[in-house]
Amino acid sequence: MKNFDSYLAVVAGALTLVMPKVGLIIVAVFLILAGLWKLGKKE
Questions:
Q1: Please, is 16 exposed, middle or buried when counting C-beta atoms within 10 Å of its C-beta (0-12, 13-18, 19+)?
Q2: What's the pLDDT score for residue 3?
Q3: Are 24 and 13 in contact (CB under 8 A)?
Q4: Tell me, what's the pLDDT at 4?
Q5: Pairwise CA distance, residues 22 & 18, whole Å
Q6: Domain ranges of the chain
């Protein structure tokens, strides 16, 4: 999962530089998904 996180972070970072609004939306969605994934793993 760590490699995937780093890859997504790089892609999101590049998109944020090119298209700030799109990058922010992707980061927000990823944070929500990551939060849900962690909550699901705890149960």
A1: middle
A2: 78
A3: no
A4: 75
A5: 9
A6: 2-42
